[in-house]
Design goal:
Length: about 230
C-alpha cells in the first residue's frame, strides 16, 4: 500500500467508528482511552501556562542556555500545578497544560497561577541572573484559565499518540494565556467560583475586571492579575 492509500485508509478509520463516550471522575491517562473510538467527558478547569518570547531568547543566547531557561519555567509550573491538585497532560514547547477537577478546581487553578507568577518574579529571574553574569533577558509569561465540559480523546496513530482536549474550556484557556495585559487571566466563569482565599489578598481583590474578548464568535468576560503568592 502506498502512502496515499495509507493516508486515505487512516482517515476512514477515524471517521467510521462511533464514539464510545463515558463520563469521567478522574483525569485519564493516555492508555485509559481507546485510540480507535474512546472518549471521556469531564467537568474540568484548564490552566495554560506559557513562557513569553522564547523566540527572542533563542536569537540572543545559545541553545544550551535557552534549554535551561525553558526547563526552569516548565519545572516550576509543573511542580506547582501538581501540588495544587492539577494533572499534567500536555507540553508544547515552552507551554504546559494543567487539568483540574473536583469541587475546588477553580480556586486550585487560580492559586496555582498565582504561585507560578511568584516563581517567575521572585525565584527564576534571580537565579538566572546569578547563574550567568551577562544574562539580561527578562522572563515574562501568560497564564489562562477557563472552566467547563471537555471531551478527551487520543490523537495520532498507534505508537505515536497523545491525549487531546476538545471543548470551549481548553480552547478559551489557551486564548486567554495570549492576552497578557497582566500575566494571569481567568474567565468570569472561573472568577465567579473562586474561594475568598483565591480571590482576595487581605481585603483587596487580586483580580481586575478587564472587559471582554471574542474567540471564535464567543464573547468572554475576563479578569486579570499581577499578584504573586508564595506557596
Amino acid at each position: 500500500m502506498g502512502l496515499a492509500d495509507d493516508v486515505s485508509t487512516g482517515i476512514d478509520g477515524v471517521l467510521s467508528p462511533n464514539w464510545v463516550i463515558r463520563n469521567g471522575q478522574v483525569v485519564p491517562e493516555t492508555a485509559d482511552i481507546a485510540l480507535k473510538d474512546g472518549a471521556v467527558r469531564l467537568d474540568a478547569t484548564y490552566l495554560y501556562a506559557d513562557m513569553a518570547d522564547s523566540t527572542g531568547l533563542a536569537q540572543k543566547y545559545s541553545d544550551t542556555k535557552v534549554a535551561k531557561v525553558i526547563r526552569c519555567y516548565l519545572n516550576a509550573a509543573t511542580r506547582i500545578i501538581r501540588a495544587r491538585g492539577g494533572h499534567i497532560r500536555s507540553f508544547d514547547g515552552d507551554r504546559v497544560m494543567g487539568i483540574f477537577i473536583g469541587g475546588s478546581k477553580n480556586s486550585n487553578s487560580a492559586k496555582a497561577a498565582l504561585n507560578i507568577n511568584w516563581a517567575v518574579r521572585k525565584v527564576i529571574q534571580d537565579k538566572l541572573a546569578s547563574k550567568w553574569d551577562s544574562f539580561d533577558w527578562t522572563m515574562n509569561h501568560g497564564i489562562g484559565i477557563d472552566t467547563g465540559q471537555a471531551m478527551l480523546v487520543r490523537g495520532g496513530v498507534h505508537g505515536q499518540n497523545d491525549i487531546i482536549s476538545i471543548g470551549g474550556a481548553p480552547n478559551i484557556a489557551a486564548k486567554l494565556s495570549d492576552l497578557r495585559q497582566k500575566p494571569l487571566t481567568i474567565s468570569s466563569d472561573v472568577y465567579s467560583r473562586l474561594s475568598k482565599e483565591a480571590k482576595f489578598s487581605g481585603d483587596k481583590d487580586m483580580w481586575t475586571k478587564m472587559g471582554t474578548a471574542t474567540f471564535g464568535g464567543k464573547s468572554v468576560l475576563y479578569y486579570s492579575s499581577s499578584y504573586t503568592w508564595k506557596p
